[in-house]
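seq/struct pair 1
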Amino acid sequence: MRPADLFVVLDKAYRRRARRCGKCGFSLPYPVFRSDDAEAGAWAVLPSETCTHECGALLEELVGRFQKDYRLSPRGGAGS
C-alpha cells in the first residue's frame, strides 16, 4: 500500500474515534527498516506536537492494530 493511501485509511479510523479533537494529527506513514525480512513493509507515523496524551494513546492503539494488517509497498507501489 502506498503511504498516502495508508494515511487515508488510518486518518478515517482516527477521526472516527477522536471526533472532539480537531488539533491533533500525524505524519504520513514512513517505512521502518528492520534486519529480518518478516518485517518487510513495516511502517510508523509521528504524532503532531499538539497531540494530547489521550489522542496519542488512541493513535498508538490504531497504529498497532493497522501495522498487523497493512504493509507499505516498496518504492510506493500499489500493492498492500
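seq/struct pair 2
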Amino acid sequence: MASSGLTGKSNVVIALRHTKDLNLNSILDELNIDSGIDWSFGTGANAANVLFHDQRSTDDTGETIDVYEGGSETTAFGDALTMEAIKLLYIKNTHASLTLEILGTADTAIGICADPSDIIELPPGGIFLWTCPTAAGIDTTTNKNLKLASKTSGTITYDIAMLGLD
C-alpha cells in the first residue's frame, strides 16, 4: 500500500557574524541566509511521495544503494525503496576522523554530477545537501546507484535521507 501523505520543509540557515577592530571602531560583517523548500505530497514541483532515511556504516570497499530498485532497502513503513526520481539527498558524515566518498559509480551513478565517475569527498562532520524541487526531479530509472565508501581503511558512519518520486 502506497503512502498517503508526505509534507515538510528542507531548510538551510547560515547566520555568521565577523568583526574587525579598527582604532576606536569595530566593523561588523553579517551573513544571514535562510533558504528552504516547502514539500508537499504528490508529483509536481516541490512535491514528493517517497522518503528514505537511515543511519548506516560502511568501509573502504563501500556500499551501493540502488535508489530505483532498492534491493533490500526499505522505507520506514517496510516498503521496498523504488524511487524513479530523486529530489533531495542529504548525507552527514558522523565519523570523527574518516572521510566519506559519495558517488563515483561510473555510468550508473545518480545524475547529480555532470561526470558519473566524479566523487564528492565529505570530511568528518561534513554535510552534503542537494535538492532538485522541479516536477521531474532527476530520473533514477537508469542512473540509479548511490555509492558511499570510506576513503581509507576503516568503518565509517553516516546519516542519509532521500526524498523523491515512486
